[in-house]
Automatic annotation (TrEMBL):
PANTHER family: THYMIDINE PHOSPHORYLASE. This is thymidine phosphorylase. Belongs to the thymidine/pyrimidine-nucleoside phosphorylase family. It catalyses: thymidine + phosphate = 2-deoxy-alpha-D-ribose 1-phosphate + thymine. NCBIfam families: PRK05820.1 (NF004490), Y_phosphoryl (TIGR02644).
C-alpha cells in the first residue's frame, strides 16, 4: 500500500519516536507512515527498535493499538473469502503445553458448515506450535500458496497453514526485531501481531483462547484479562465479532505433550474419547465458534451440536479429508504407528505417596523441548516422535513408585535431563488441593 503523498512528504521517524517517548498519542497517519516505511525498508532497524521500546515503556491508547493493527494488516494481502458460503470463523490460542485444540476445532467447526481459514504458528520456548503438530503427520504440507489454501478451504471447509509472505509482512519484520530487542512482552504489540494476522484471513469472527497460569506467557490472570480485553476491543473496532476465553494453563492440557503424541490425542477426542479436560475445552471453544458462525442460537446449543458431530464421526471424517487434501497420510487416523515413533520409553516414578498438589507446567513444556520436541531458537529442528505422557494430573492420588509420566525419547542424555525436570515439577501433598481450578476462568466479549 503506497503512502498518501501528504504523509510520505512529511513523515520523519524521529518525530514519531520522540512523540511516543514523551507519552503522547500518535495519529493514525503517523503509525501508518512508520509501519509502511519500515516494511519497505525505508527506515533502519535502530529507529524502529527505539520506537518499540518507547511503546513498551509508555504503552498505547486503544485507537493507537487499532491503527497499528490495521496498518500491519494492510501491509500485505487481505484475503477475500466472500465467494465461500457461510461465515468464516477462526480460533487463536496464546500458547501453552499440550494445547492441541486447534487440530480438533478446525475440522469440528467445518463439519458444522463454518469455513475455518486457520493460519497458525510454530512452537517457541516451552510452548508447542500447531504447525509442528501437523507436520508430525507424514506428508502434511503447511506451506500452501494462497490459491491452494482457498481450494482446500472450499473443498472441506477448513485449511491449516503457516503465515505466507503475502500475509501481514509488517508483522514478520516487526516480530523478528521485537524478538532481539526485549520488546516481545508488550500487550499492545502482542495484540497487533496476533490480530493483524488473524484479520488478514478474511474472517467474520474470532474466538480467542487466552491462557493463564504457570505454563502460559501471561502468568497472572490480570495480565491475561488485559490482553484479552485489548484484542476483543481491537477486533470489534475493526468490525469483527470477537470473544476471548481466559483458560487455565496451570497444568498441561490433556495427557500427551509432543507433536506426534498430540496428534494421537486429537484423534482420540474426535472419536469421542480422550482426556476430560481436553474434551471439555474443545466443546466450549467449539460452542462459541458455532454461535459466532451463526449455526447455533446459543453457545450451549453450539456445544450440543459439536458433541453430535463428534459422536457421528463427521468431525473426524473432515479431519481425515483435510489431511488428505494437504498431502498428508490419512491412514494415521486408523493406524497411529504411521506417525513418527520414539525408539525408547522411560517411566518417571513418584518418590512419595499422597496427592498431586501442583504441576509446574512450564517445566513440563521445557522438558519436552529438551527431548527435542520443541525449539529454543527459531532455526532449531524438531523431533516429532519424542514427548511426554502424563499419568497423573492435579488432585490425583499417587503411591510411592507409581508412574507420574512416561518419557518418549531418542537420546539418553536428553531423557535424563527431562526426567529431572518432570520429577521436580510435580509437588505431592498429604491431602488433595482444597479446590479445583476451573478450566474456563471467565469470558470477555462475545455479546456483539
Amino acid at each position: 500500500m503506497s503512502l498518501p503523498t501528504s504523509v510520505s512528504q512529511t513523515f520523519r521517524a524521529i518525530d514519531v519516536i520522540r512523540k511516543k517517548r514523551d507519552g503522547m498519542e500518535l495519529s493514525r497517519d503517523e503509525i501508518e507512515g512508520l509501519v509502511n516505511a519500515y516494511t519497505k525498508g525505508e527506515i533502519p532497524d535502530y529507529q524502529v527498535s527505539a520506537w518499540l521500546m518507547a511503546v513498551v515503556l509508555r504503552g498505547m491508547t486503544r485507537p493507537e493499538t487499532t491503527a497499528l493493527t490495521d496498518a500491519m494488516l494492510r501491509s500485505g494481502e487481505v484475503l477475500d473469502l466472500s465467494s465461500l458460503p457461510g461465515r468464516k470463523v477462526d480460533k487463536h490460542s496464546t500458547g501453552g503445553v499440550g494445547d492441541k485444540t486447534s487440530l480438533v476445532l478446525a475440522p469440528l467447526a467445518a463439519a458444522a458448515g463454518i469455513a475455518v481459514p486457520m493460519i497458525s504458528g510454530r512452537g517457541l520456548g516451552h510452548t508447542g506450535g500447531t504447525l509442528d503438530k501437523l507436520e508430525a503427520i507424514p506428508g502434511f504440507n503447511v506451506n500452501l500458496s494462497v490459491a491452494e489454501f482457498r481450494r482446500v478451504l472450499a473443498t472441506c471447509g477448513c485449511a491449516m497453514i503457516g503465515q505466507t509472505a503475502e500475509i501481514a509482512p509488517a508483522d514478520r519484520k516487526l516480530y523478528a526485531l521485537r524478538d532481539v530487542t526485549g520488546t516481545v512482552e508488550s500487550p499492545y504489540l502482542i495484540c497487533a501481531s496476533i490480530m493483524s494476522k488473524k484479520l488478514a484471513e478474511g474472517i467474520d469472527a474470532l474466538v480467542l483462547d487466552v491462557k493463564t497460569g504457570s505454563g502460559a506467557f501471561m502468568k497472572s490472570e490480570k495480565d491475561a484479562a488485559f490482553l484479552a480485553e485489548l484484542m476483543v476491543e481491537t477486533g470489534e473496532r475493526m468490525g469483527k465479532q470477537v470473544v476471548a476465553l481466559i483458560t487455565d494453563m496451570d497444568q498441561p492440557l490433556g495427557k500427551m505433550i509432543g507433536n506426534a503424541l498430540e496428534v494421537v490425542e486429537v484423534v482420540e477426542v474426535l472419536r469421542g474419547h480422550g482426556p476430560a479436560d481436553l474434551r471439555e475445552l474443545c466443546l466450549e471453544l467449539a460452542g462459541w465458534m458455532l454461535h459466532l458462525g451463526g449455526v447455533s442460537k446459543t453457545v450451549a446449543e453450539g456445544k450440543q451440536q459439536s458433541a453430535k458431530l463428534i459422536s457421528s464421526g463427521k468431525a473426524l471424517e473432515t479431519f481425515r479429508r483435510m489431511i488428505e487434501l494437504q498431502g498428508g497420510d490419512p491412514r494415521v487416523i486408523e493406524d497411529a504407528q504411521r506417525l513418527p515413533q520414539a525408539q525408547h520409553t522411560m517411566p518417571v516414578a513418584s518418590t512419595g505417596a499422597g496427592y498431586i498438589a501442583s504441576i509446574q507446567c512450564e517445566q513440563i513444556g521445557t522438558a519436552c523441548v529438551i527431548l527435542g520436541g520443541g525449539r529454543e531458537r527459531k532455526e532449531d529442528s524438531v523431533d516429532p516422535a519424542v514427548g511426554i505422557v502424563l499419568h497423573k494430573k492435579v488432585g490425583d492420588r499417587v503411591a510411592a513408585g507409581e508412574p507420574l509420566a512416561t518419557i518418549y525419547y531418542n537420546a539418553e542424555a536428553r531423557a535424563a535431563r527431562a526426567r529431572q525436570l518432570i520429577e521436580a515439577s510435580c509437588q505431592i501433598a498429604n491431602v488433595p488441593p482444597a479446590e479445583k481450578r476451573p478450566l474456563v476462568h471467565r469470558v470477555i466479549g462475545g455479546s456483539k
